[in-house]
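User: Modeling request: complex.
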Amino acid sequence: MTTITENTKSEPAEQDASQTPLIVSDVHKSFGSQKVLDGVNLTAERGQTIVVLGRSGTGKSVLLKLIVGLEQPDSGSIRIHGQEIAGLESGQLNEIRKKIGFLFQQAALYDSLTVEENVQFPLNRHTTLSDAERREKARELLSNLGMERDLTKMPSDISGGMQKRVGLARALALDPDLLLFDEPTSGLDPITAAEIGQLIMKLKKERNLTSVVVTHDVHGARSFADRVVLLREGKVVIDGPFSELERSSDPFVVQFLKDAA
Amino acid sequence: MSADPIHIVRNWVTAFFEWFGELALFSVRVARATLTVPWEGREFIRQMDAIGSKSLPLVALAGAATGVVLSLQTRDSLTRFGAKAMLPAVIVFSLIKESGPVITALIVSGRVGAGIGAELGSMRVTEQIDAMEVSAVDPYKFLASTRVLACVLMLPLLTLAADASGTFLGWISSTLSEPVTFRYFLHSGLKDAMLSDFLPPTFKTAVFGLIIGVVSCFQGMRTRGGTAGVGRSATSSVVLSSIFIILADVILVRFIQVFFPS
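Assistant: Request completed. Predicted assembly structure:
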């Protein structure tokens, strides 16, 4: 009898977990003696844009690397659509990675490939599309991001903002349902930074994508965040809508917003 | 305040063994990536071109210079001992058995080793290798195994080119002092040669290629510390490859003498 009751209770919970794009539970990570993440919890529901804020060195980028399996947590759990990724074999991990797009801080474009070839790179490896179809898809993605005139350029020949757009097109190539942004607006002028922010909002509207955005850009976060997670010394200080951040009387939060303004 | 010497030695020894341990793990990972499908055929061909075809002029030049120097240096000595007729054989045997393979390997370790170390190092510090992993592409397969395999296959071919250009320029140098036909020069040089003189020294360069590929990819992919780190990786790729090539040569020469006696 007890077993039946337990099963009935756990089934919806299991179902919910498998439908939730991202659940980070009590994650700890240290490098040597330096503790970077100290019991971080974070959940991203379908279509939500979560912005992770915090000072430099508080583990924001490490959190993204843990989510995508580039680093392994010391303890805790990271689930993508209900599947635990810690300790997965590379083959299984790669299957999950195909559904995750990652925009790196410096775009990380392959500098021996052209703009178009960069976007085609994941398509060449993970799709059965013909050459023409892959080319068409890459051009469509680049065109949507305003890069249709720079297909044959090398990454070193385009600006930082353009590199980020190409990086975003590459991240979208395999139609991911979870997008991770590492400092998408860092190093960009305010106008280009605002354009990148608009692109994030556009993607959310058009594709209902779940996004985790690590940034210092508090102004941008206000415009595109459904929820803000503020990290301090590897711990979550606030997890809620931006208004909660603004209402907070915590001296650290007040100072953080003041410094960011 | 001076640092404790015991502590320094202990750290150095630990780092030394850690390096070898990591190299072993890296090699296993690359070997596994090389032996599993899908193979990165296009990238492999690109690497064979970058490592093989593009090294050819330099290797041929080095081989030619060696042939000329051998001819110039040994002519006087052989004349003094009344063995001038042995000159073609001395040039050909020296080139095929030792000079050609080792000079080719050292030239390629300088040109290709530095290139691989710097390229992969740069890709590491600019997160391109991370981007590849995130795209569900195995960098050990796409970047490392293609380069290692290309080095292994290209070194024997480049060695043949060095041997050929060295023999040809050795003849030119020799014939400028005392005219002989190339046919006669080759015949004199090769008349006592057997396959066991020719094949093992040429194929031992596959081991040199393995050393260059593995060490350079390893140094490149473990790069830390921005552009300064890239420079260190390029330098250490060349230095370590060269040291291991020289050590491997000593072992392989003895191995060939034991298992392929002339």
